């Protein structure tokens, strides 16, 4: 039998490292962490693509319109889930000048009108309203403009209407606004009251460029905001109806602008997921994204704000003689209908479309339009 292999003894004072040199283990650990982060980021980008048709953090590429200084989606964007036309509006091309005999509907609002959470383009509630009217009045040709722009307030929609939408000669205009104005208005009060965090969307460089970091940051904020809202302590105290008076004045100015162009103007009360009859846990779940953008509000403050702004919508419709589309309380406050605190799912879009259709198809001004009077 040959001689057995001998191992060199470890010199006194030296340690034998299982992976070789002393820094090898650290390299392996760091490499594993980096690969794990990259794998997580890749998986989230795939998820983003499946949901929104793009792996980017933002659904849109944006531009600053030189004529209005408004931040608008770039024209002619294409994806599997969402498309913009040559004006940057979601949906099909809109002919200008308007063809003779066409009844054109313009939907004016923000992200709850654009409905980026739902695809394809024909499944969102403005498209369903136009399709429903075409079915209800088969001898009439309808088209529509989805002028919903994420983040827009009433004032921004008025500027967009004056500069762009009015020139498209809409016959019917449906306005949906509330949550962004409520956010901006209460944010101003929060700053004046000295609240440290007033804007949930302010993100770091990492959050703007790494989806995984952005979602982690967002979830941590949501947990903290929920904990603060649960107690109700040190939350912003404000007069909801007094704040809503300014919103009503802005909304009436928009309705005046729209009435100068369109024979039929409608304004809808705003549907949201948080409800007075819910228990605290259900309210917190319903208000999760609300609290990201209004972290200084209590749950009762959110309910009071939405209630006051919806009353302002009702009052503005009455003062300007436009069609009021009510019934926002009728939508079930469940994940089947709401993607988050305010944005609809596909089922929510169908509910919203039925609500709008039911009001439009019975209005005498709509009947006059389809009759060609």
Describe the structure.
Residues 1-7 have low confidence and may be disordered. The strands form two sheets. Strands 4-3-5-6-7 form a five-stranded parallel β-sheet, sandwiched between helices. A two-stranded antiparallel sheet has the order 1-2. The protein has a domain at 83-201 and 232-370: Rossmann fold. It has helices at 24-52, 111-114, 125-136, 154-165, 179-192, 205-209, 211-231, 240-259, 280-286, 288-293, 299-320, 346-360, 364-370, and strands at residues 62-64, 71-73, 102-109, 141-148, 172-176, 264-268, 323-325. It contains 13 helices and seven strands.
Fraction of residues in helix: 40-55%
SSE-based structural type: alpha/beta
Low-pLDDT sequence parts:
1-7
Overall average pLDDT: 85
- The end-to-end span amounts to 112 Å
Strand order of the largest sheet: 4-3-5-6-7
Radius of gyration: 26 Å
Number of strands: 7
Measured by DSSP, the beta-strand proportion falls in: 5-15%
CATH class of the domain at 83-201 and 232-370: Alpha Beta
Query: Biggest sheet: strands, sense, closure?
Result: 5 strands, parallel
Order of helices and strands: HEEEHHEHEHHHHEHHHEHH
According to CATH, the homologous superfamily of the domain at 83-201 and 232-370 is: SGNH hydrolase
Global shape: globular
Q: What would you say the CATH architecture of the domain at 83-201 and 232-370 is? A: 3-Layer(aba) Sandwich
The number of helical elements comes to 13
């Amino acid at each position: 039998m040959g001689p057995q292999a001998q191992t060199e003894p470890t010199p006194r004072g030296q340690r034998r490292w299982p992976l070789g040199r002393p820094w090898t283990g650290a390299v392996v650990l760091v490499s594993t962490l980096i690969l794990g982060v990259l794998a997580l980021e890749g998986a989230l980008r795939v998820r983003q693509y499946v949901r929104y048709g793009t792996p980017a953090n933002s659904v849109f590429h944006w531009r600053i319109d030189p004529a209005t200084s408004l931040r608008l989606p770039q024209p002619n964007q294409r994806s599997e889930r969402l498309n913009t036309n040559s004006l940057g509006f979601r949906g099909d091309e809109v002919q200008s000048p308007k063809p003779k005999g066409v009844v054109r509907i313009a939907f004016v609002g923000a992200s709850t009108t654009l409905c980026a959470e739902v695809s394809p383009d024909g499944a969102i509630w403005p498209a369903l309203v136009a399709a429903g009217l075409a079915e209800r009045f088969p001898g009439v040709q309808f088209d529509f403009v989805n002028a919903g722009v994420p983040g827009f307030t009433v004032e921004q929609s008025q500027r967009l209407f004056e500069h762009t939408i009015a020139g498209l000669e809409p016959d019917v205009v449906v306005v949906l606004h509330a949550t962004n104005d409520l956010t901006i208005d209460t944010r101003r009060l929060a700053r004046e009251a000295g609240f440290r965090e007033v804007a949930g969307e302010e993100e770091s460089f990492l959050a703007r460029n790494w989806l995984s970091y952005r979602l982690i940051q967002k979830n941590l904020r949501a947990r903290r905001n929920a904990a603060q809202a649960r107690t109700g302590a040190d939350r912003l105290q404000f007069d909801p109806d007094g704040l809503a008076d300014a919103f009503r004045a802005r909304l009436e100015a928009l309705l005046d602008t729209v009435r100068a162009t369109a024979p039929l103007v409608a304004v809808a009360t705003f549907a949201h997921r948080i409800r007075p009859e819910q228990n605290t846990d259900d309210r917190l779940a319903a208000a999760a994204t609300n609290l990201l953008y209004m972290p200084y509000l209590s749950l009762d403050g959110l309910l009071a704000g939405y209630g006051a702004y919806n009353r302002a919508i009702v009052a503005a419709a009455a003062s300007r003689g436009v069609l009021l589309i009510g019934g926002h309380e009728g939508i079930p406050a469940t994940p089947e209908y709401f993607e988050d605190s305010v944005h609809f799912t596909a089922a929510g879009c169908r509910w919203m479309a039925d609500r709008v259709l039911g009001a439009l198809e019975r209005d005498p001004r709509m009947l006059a339009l389809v009759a060609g009077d």
